[in-house]
Amino acid sequence: MSTIHDVARLAGVSIGTVSRVLSGNPATSPESRERVREAALQLGYTPNARAQSLRLARTGVIGLSISDVRNPFFADAAHGAEQEALAAGRVTMLANADEDSAIEARYLRAFRAQRVDGVLMSPQGGSAEGARSLVEAGIPVVLLNRTLDGVDAPVVTFDVRQGIEQAIMHLRDRGHRRIGLIAGPVSVSTGRARVSAFESIRDELGLDPAPELVQLADGRRGGGADAAERLLDLSPAPTAVLSSNALMSSGAFEAIRGRGAAVELVSFDDQDWMRLVDPPLSVIEQDAAHMGAVAMRLLLELIDGGSPRSVTLPTRLIPRG
Amino acid sequence: MSTIHDVARLAGVSIGTVSRVLSGNPATSPESRERVREAALQLGYTPNARAQSLRLARTGVIGLSISDVRNPFFADAAHGAEQEALAAGRVTMLANADEDSAIEARYLRAFRAQRVDGVLMSPQGGSAEGARSLVEAGIPVVLLNRTLDGVDAPVVTFDVRQGIEQAIMHLRDRGHRRIGLIAGPVSVSTGRARVSAFESIRDELGLDPAPELVQLADGRRGGGADAAERLLDLSPAPTAVLSSNALMSSGAFEAIRGRGAAVELVSFDDQDWMRLVDPPLSVIEQDAAHMGAVAMRLLLELIDGGSPRSVTLPTRLIPRG
DNA sequence: GGCGCACGTGGAAACGTTTCCGAGCGGGGA
DNA sequence: TCCCCGCTCGGAAACGTTTCCACGTGCGCC
To answer: Which domain of life is it from (chains A, B) (predicted)?
Structure first.
């Protein structure tokens, strides 16, 4: 790989001049510009970004740590964030924490070692240590979708209460009185928030308050199926079930259909298949890509010295079936 | 952010000693080790990976460019590759090309500027320029799922012919004689390969060779729906349709159901929803995560000075409905 | 016709590491 | 007692950039 010295030698100028030409510094003669451009092209020269960022303070790279690339919700969020960064001339480095805080910690250490300009992350449950140490090291951080106790960083979340309320009122209007909840892991803030919003709205509306109607699951497909089985085992079983994410909904749907049970399922997050199955699922739509884009914009502001601010996004009920 | 100089000052030793202690060089006294460790901990010191990689040749970072994070096939592949890299002590930097060769080019330039140790990529159609320039710059490259004309890099692909053959024979055994194909874009090698494999196997088995039974699409959901509509408009319409990827299958499924048509749909790539819809879809399963892992192993070998080799993976038909 | 000024350039420092080289110091063997 | 060796360490060079500083050149102006 050729360096700036090679270019300088070939162009017959000093490395300072090469640097000036290539970085668009006006203090260069047309002849130098021509010769340097020519030489750089001929050698296929690409400046070493690591050396650049050593000299400059910035790296132009933004770390993006998400919970699970295979979860479409997070994949969409990552995509939205990435597009926004790209538009601002930055490059993102995506890390997949795989819902595992040990892997997350590893990537966050790498981000820190790489001296990324900022980090956008949807934190894992387990430990807030990784995020906290980033914040303490002075690296701009914005949290995605989940909050973290004791970490002083802006967050972009959806209005959980609004979403749950929309869903429960929809089900109540359709005559349901006994509604089950398949909740995500309480180790993440969204999991906890959804449980408490569910309980409080259910009680406000005077629906069946039996505690066994709230079943905790791990957020994965299998966990959703198991939780659905447990709900169906109750007597009487709930006539409607609200599921906290798309993966669990898929498991729950299969369990319910396997039993031939007549239970109405409502899911968080809209996905194509929810329209394709019979009956189609009503959903609480959360625009993940938008969330990612908003969060990235916040992070870019923060990096450019702006003040931290958090945003709560609305959800939208899409009634079906 | 503290540097090695800060640690050295606090520990009362030279930076050379700090470096030796922290990199596990045995030429250090127990007292130095103790003092340095203590100081590093106290300062929350993280070595600057960019400075390290400037001095060393390696960066420990592997670039991973995939076509579309939102496509579960590629998300799985990325996940498999990432796990493999993680196990080998490397960190991956994921770039989402979004099926756009301009974005891809941008990320590949960034990879090159960052001097990543190697690049694993599922190339876009359009231009092979990006991949070629990496190879010419001497950066180890392995291609994922798609080949690229004129680029001398190992590839990991699935056995297209085998997959198509399994699907067509399955359909023939179920009595179908007029089978449609929704093909991916011919700008990518898999798109082209599937069309020619389809045509040759169809002819070998003596099935209806009408050229209008092969419909090209863009690989996206909407394109799949449109192609399905065109197939259904034929008279006679095909009684079975093979779709080249999961996104297009979802569009095609909806179109077929919307028409109330009695057409058997078989899809490449297995996804959860294909089991949930009615009727469930038979699929040609391609283990994307495994592909990613295999490709990463090949890349790691290449980085460590091994010789390049390509791998073709088998597909598996899962008959349903 | 000198003086100063703008402009272009080369040289060198600095960014934060790793590693080589040489030096100091102590101990053991002749 | 002296020498040599091994252990530990500090100093400095090098990696590839950017940018500051100073210097030379040519021009316009008094």
So the answer is: Bacteria
